[in-house]
Amino acid sequence: MKSRFVQWLRQHPVRAFFILLGIFIAAESLTIPFFSVSRLNKENPKETALMRQRIHEAENEGRELRIKQKWIPLSRVPKAVIDAVIVAEDGTFYTHSGIDWFEVQESIERNLDEGRAARGASTITQQLAKNLYLSTSKDPIRKLKELIITFLLEKDLTKARILELYLNLIEWGRGIFGIEAASQTYFGKSASSLTLDEAARLAAVIPSPLRHRPDVNSRYVMYRKRIVLARLSARNLDYQSPEQENTPSPPMKLYPQTEDAGQASDSTRISDTTEVSEDNNNGL
Length: 284
Known about the structure:
The chain is mostly helical. It has one domain: Biosynthetic peptidoglycan transglycosylase-like (Penicillin binding protein transpeptidase fold, Orthogonal Bundle), CATH 1.10.3810. Helices cover about 50% and strands about 0% of the residues. It is built from 11 helices and 2 strands. The chain starts with a helix and ends in a 50-residue tail after the last helix. Residues about 240-260 and about 265-280 have low confidence and may be disordered.
């Protein structure tokens, strides 16, 4: 029986390839949450695929990871926080249908010019899809599944709900997920009391939350914070430009040198030499 099957494969390689491809696609499609996305209208997820991935990574490193995440309704999140996150991560969030095709084109052109993944183009909805259901892998199959889930999210949820889920679930440090846990960890208060400066800092580290803390005056954080504030000012959102901003930055915090941002015991480097144009880890 086995020899006959092998013989058939040798006689019909093209047909066998497409049959195997069809089986693979069918199997992968079973992992797409076609029916569970709509439940997000009323249900707040207790954990995400990224949380499980980080726990698994920690176990492989022989340590325990405690997840910090606390839900806060979008109505209690200051407008400054919402605006800062949108201008930092997805300026056309309210007008696109899940994919910002202009950003995709710009990203492809820049990456081709530089010969590396220098710029990401993931929207807030795409980042949410990845965090909820997928992983940080960059393989083509994962990206295709991300696009399908993105369209499902946009079809079944309102923009406000997508933003609420995003703010409550994305990674903001080692074991830190969501704006409320991030605000309490880094600034010692609820997200409902965040200032414009703090909002810009939190938005600044979204691309690389495991390498940078928003409460540290690193070159990366200060550079990206000024970009966020400049974009807010340019959009006439009643915020001051960086040159006009009088809010003093918090004093530089120094912590033991480790690889991670997040909890004080797992904190960031004392000196920051990371390039300010580093890859977007949270959005790819």
